[in-house]
Amino acid sequence: MIKQNHYHQGYVVNPLSISKIHSKALDFRMDYFHRIDRYGRIDISTILEIDYGDGRKYAILESDSNGPMGLTTNDGIIFLAPSVYEGAINGNGRDRFTLAHEFGHVCLHQGQIGFARASTSQNKIYENSEWQANEFAGAVLLPDYELVKNKGASIQILAEQFGVSLECAEIRKEKAQRRGIL
């Protein structure tokens, strides 16, 4: 069963449908096609290292204590806790998801968060920045077309093959089933 509140308090942003978020995630994967191995796993951590010539992309926070695991500024700079950065480089599924989630904020929310108001239970889920970034992260790491291609694979196999946590693989598969993709 999918956990209903698997995202943190977010900000109200422009509404996006699942199909629009997944389309943007697919665009992201295609932009970094050379970072996808023959099994479909994207090397999300090395995308941080690409030099775009503008002098900005990411920074490592000083420590993990009492701070966020990751955050993205309104101008697209990603900050990561040292443990998340190391974990993503070492293939930890949860840390890879956190990094993909922060890329989701860059791709979906740049220019919106600085003036946004906090999301409440009164707002629609598809207006929540955290929900949108989670959808993006799941679709980048384990896209629908890979779920279809690996339809008979167990949650364990999906998690290992795509470098995601068991929870992510389970949620992605369950959501795809509810949408009639599987």
Automatic annotation (TrEMBL):
Domain IrrE N-terminal-like: 91-172
InterPro entries: IrrE_HExxH, Rad_response_metalloprotease
Top-level taxon of origin: Bacteria
Any Pfam family the entry gives: Peptidase_M78
Protein name: ImmA/IrrE family metallo-endopeptidase
PANTHER family: ANTITOXIN HIGA1, BLL7220 PROTEIN
